[in-house]
Write a structure and sequence with these properties.
Elements lengths: L6 E4 L4 E4 L1 E4 L20 H13 L4 E3 L7 H9 L7 E6 L1 E4 L2 E4 L3 H15 L4 E7 L4 H7 L1 H11 L3 E7 L2 H10 L4 E5 L8 H10 L2 E5 L22 H10 L4 H14 L5 E5 L4 H10 L5 H11 L3
Parallel strand pairs: 3-4, 3-12, 4-5, 5-8, 8-9, 9-10, 10-11, 11-12
Antiparallel strand pairs: 1-2, 6-7
Helix pairs in contact: 1-2, 2-3, 3-5, 6-7, 8-11
Bound molecules: NADP nicotinamide-adenine-dinucleotide phosphate.
């Protein structure tokens, strides 16, 4: 079995997604660890290579957002002719105004944003549109205008399913509301706050997409040059690296496998601007890992 390409069913969507999904933030906007070139988005040609590598390898889920600057447009240009090969997820509520983004969760802004996403993505229909929560999420939920606009777009046949990208107590509130088919939440070896939410989604047939499954690169070899600096998770990452004898890729393999063990997770949206990482991450997910090592890594990640 290829763990990366294992299809996981999302009952509320009546379909399935590959366990390894693709996060398209990194191909549209500067992002991630470090500074300068390390964070810079790729040029258009390289972004095109990443996106086609994703589909060539059989990954069937692409997650983007209207706020990821060039991401939607690049997906539209590079792979819209292969539209049948991927489940397409985008977001609304946070908007791009390069080099910044801004929030507008009003009915009108959200309707316009969905129409703009359809044009940029060069598609007739978006499979999943998610609320891209920012500051003051309580207000967005309470006013309900964003959800109203998303439901209207669904009625018009522009989107098929609705989701929310949010964590913790408010995620739980969204899950229990019954309005959402999919939840996008942060979860990784170092951050377990959504564990109970993941369980609840599984019980309700709601899909779970994981963002920052590699802790934005901290659970990859990219952390190695920063291990002399101070940052909150440093102690736990050092102990994890002791387990892997300093091997950064082995750390990534542990982080991915930890997620794979959780059957409530539909897909982990690993982001990258580098085409070669797609093959690497597939290979790392398929590495044999000693069960005891994984148990120890999980305990260290949880702070035990
Ligand atoms: N609010 C939201 O809804 C929200 C927020 C954040 C993210 N997201 C979604 O989640 C996706 C992923 O989240 P994320 O970017 O925060 O974190 P992530 O997937 O945990 O980490 C991505 C980082 O890991 C690096 N990486 C990936 N595979 C690697 C490997 N094999 N070796 C070395 N480095 C590797 C990438 O660097 P390179 O580019 O150098 O490969 C990238 O900077 C995003 O693309 C986006 O779709 C959503």
């Amino acid at each position: 079995m290829n763990r990366a390409l294992e299809k996981r069913e999302i009952p509320r969507m009546g379909g399935s997604v590959t366990f390894l999904g693709f996060g398209a933030l990194e191909i549209g906007r500067d992002w991630g660890l470090g500074s300068g070139k390390d964070r810079e988005r790729p040029d258009e040609r390289e972004a095109n290579r990443v996106l086609n590598a994703v589909l060539d390898r059989g990954i069937n889920l692409i997650d983007t957002a209207s706020a990821y600057h060039r991401s939607e447009e690049r997906i539209g240009k590079a792979v819209s002719h292969r539209r049948g090969e991927y489940v397409l997820a985008t977001k609304c509520g946070e908007h791009s105004r390069e080099p910044d983004t801004f929030y507008d969760f009003s009915y009108r802004a959200v309707k316009e944003s969905i129409d703009r996403s359809l044009r940029r993505l060069r598609t007739e229909v978006i499979d999943l549109v998610q609320i891209h929560f920012g500051p003051d999420p309580e207000k967005v939920i309470e006013e309900g205008k964003t959800l109203e606009a998303m439901k209207e777009a669904r009625k018009e046949g522009k989107v098929r399913f609705l989701g929310a990208s949010i964590d913790g107590e408010l995620a739980k509130q969204c899950i229990l509301s019954g309005d959402f088919d999919v939840m996008q939440m942060e979860y990784n070896l170092l951050n377990r706050q959504n564990e109970e939410n993941i369980r609840l989604c599984r019980e309700k047939g709601i899909g779970v997409l994981i963002r920052s499954g590699l802790a934005m690169g901290k659970l990859t070899p990219r952390i190695l040059p920063y291990m002399e600096e101070d940052f909150p998770e440093k102690g736990r990452i050092r102990r994890l690296l002791e387990l892997t004898e300093g091997d950064g890729e082995a750390l990534t393999a542990l982080a991915l496998r930890f997620l794979h063990e959780n059957k409530g997770i539909s897909s982990v949206l690993v982001g990258t601007k580098k085409p070669g990482r797609i093959d690497r991450n597939i290979a790392l997910l398929n590495r044999e890992i000693d069960g005891e090592l994984l148990t120890r890594a999980a305990a260290i990640g949880a702070g035990d």
